[in-house]
Specification:
The chain has 375 residues and is of the alpha+beta class. The protein has two domains: 3-53 and 186-374, Naphthalene 1,2-dioxygenase Alpha Subunit, Chain A, domain 1 (Alpha-Beta Complex); 55-172, Rieske Iron-sulfur Protein, CATH 2.102.10.10. It has helices at 3-18, 34-37, 39-51, 168-172, 204-209, 316-345, 359-374; strands at residues 29-32, 55-59, 68-74, 77-83, 89-93, 107-109, 112-114, 121-123, 128-130, 148-149, 151-152, 157-160, 191-200, 229-238, 242-249, 269-275, 279-283, 287-295, 302-310, 351-354. The strands form five sheets. It has a seven-stranded antiparallel sheet, with helices on both faces. Strand 14 and strand 15 form a beta hairpin. Bound molecules: FE2/S2 (inorganic) cluster and fe (ii) ion (FE2).
């Protein structure tokens, strides 16, 4: 975010804190409980929103150097993302051409990937480099490379398409409406901390919406998040596809007594970018996190990844503490609430209520519904 945008965002936050208000939607809305329980809706969402739409899976800084790589799974598909020796970002299905075992594990830096099953070895560009007892196989090596996936890090975030036939332009343009807001965050330069994975018994939309409102700070997070963050939030949407929701640290209101020239270069708090369909990129002055939620195998299950990176290597310890703090509140407070909600929604209720004070939750529920209808 450039300085002018940062200053204008801080001004809006200071004004909200000053009046102890929050950006609101014009009206309350309701949503059908069936949206969280219907296997038909779930299977359409899986296909349209996740398998047929680009997914944000990490920060470009996680694969900075030539030879660096990360592995993950998206919708049950094993993925390896790597920076080849020419600096080109590449993504592949992490499955060996011989019989399908994973060729890369964890993350790190390598010149080649060697499958541990029978030793087939691949270059960073995905081509088969060599294999034991090569004479026992036909020479059609071009069919023996790793399967490439479209991938882009134009915005500083790693975006992939899970369908190898997805046009590169679709992946390149996925964040076009919001990526200007990422300028200056330095996503390409950030350092990896950790990624955690959770299997959660709740519909993916309930989990995504945990990161879309501050209404619950004073209650669910009374002893954690609410100790240092104000619930007064401002929100923006970007071409009806992505949203941004910002809230400030306690004490930010004191900035109103200072000249804006003395204000900081980053919003003193958290700026939470919600990216279609359900990934949240949270930026803080020193670090950033991604919460990526995707549907599990059934309508009431999800897989969640929580990734942390930091801006300055020398401040890694403090960033790690912030990552752990956020992770603990998420795992011990947010996720159990989501599981309870899923269970409670199966008891015969037919409606949920989304208040005026939850405009981002409203935005996403509307968008998910309308996109399914239109596609
Ligand atoms: S499965 Fe990879 S070498 Fe056999
Ligand atoms: Fe929360």
């Amino acid at each position: 975010m450039n300085r002018d945008n940062t200053i204008s965002l801080i001004k809006r936050l200071v004004q909200r804190i000053d009046t102890n208000t929050t950006d609101e939607a014009p009206d309350m809305m309701t949503e059908s409980v069936a949206d969280f329980l219907s296997p038909q809706r779930f299977s359409r969402e899986r296909q349209q929103f996740f398998l047929d739409s680009p997914q944000v899976i990490g920060f470009a800084g996680e694969v900075k150097e030539p030879g660096s790589y990360i592995t993950t799974e998206t919708m049950g598909i094993p993925i390896v993302v790597t920076r080849d020796s020419d600096g080109q970002l590449r993504a592949f299905i992490n499955a060996c051409a011989h019989r399908g075992a994973k060729v890369a594990h964890g993350c790190g830096n390598k010149q080649r990937f060697t499958c541990k099953f029978h030793g087939w070895t691949y270059s960073l560009n995905g081509e088969l480099y060599g294999r034991p007892q090569d004479a026992c196989f036909d020479k059609a090596d071009k069919y023996c490379g790793l399967k490439p996936l479209p991938v882009s890090d134009i915005s500083g975030l790693i975006v992939i398409g899970l369908n190898p036939d997805m046009p590169q332009a679709v992946v390149d343009n996925h964040l076009a409406d919001i990526q200007d807001q990422f300028v200056g965050f330095g996503f390409h330069e950030m350092y990896s901390l950790e990624t955690r994975r959770f299997e959660v018994k709740a519909n993916w939309k309930i989990i995504a919406a945990l990161s879309y409102e501050s209404y619950h700070f004073a209650t669910l997070h009374r002893d954690s998040v609410a100790q240092w963050l104000r619930p007064n939030a401002v929100y923006d949407t970007f071409n009806n596809k992505h949203s941004r929701w910002s809230f400030a640290m306690k004490g930010t209101e004191k900035l109103k007594d200072k000249d804006t020239a003395e204000w900081p270069d980053a919003v003193p708090g958290a700026v939470s970018h919600a990216l279609f369909p359900g990934t949240v990129v949270i930026t803080n002055p020193e670090d950033a996190q991604i919460i990526r939620t995707e549907p599990g195998n059934s309508v009431g299950t999800s897989i969640v990844y929580y990734t942390g990176v930091c801006r300055h290597k020398e401040k890694m310890e403090a960033s790690r503490a912030a990552y752990d703090f956020g992770g603990q509140a998420f795992e011990q407070e947010d996720l159990p609430a989501a599981i309870e909600c899923q269970q409670g929604l199966t008891t015969g209720r037919d409606t949920i209520y989304i208040g005026k004070n939850e405009p981002v939750v409203q935005f996403w529920h509307r968008q998910w519904r309308e996109r399914l209808r239109n596609e």
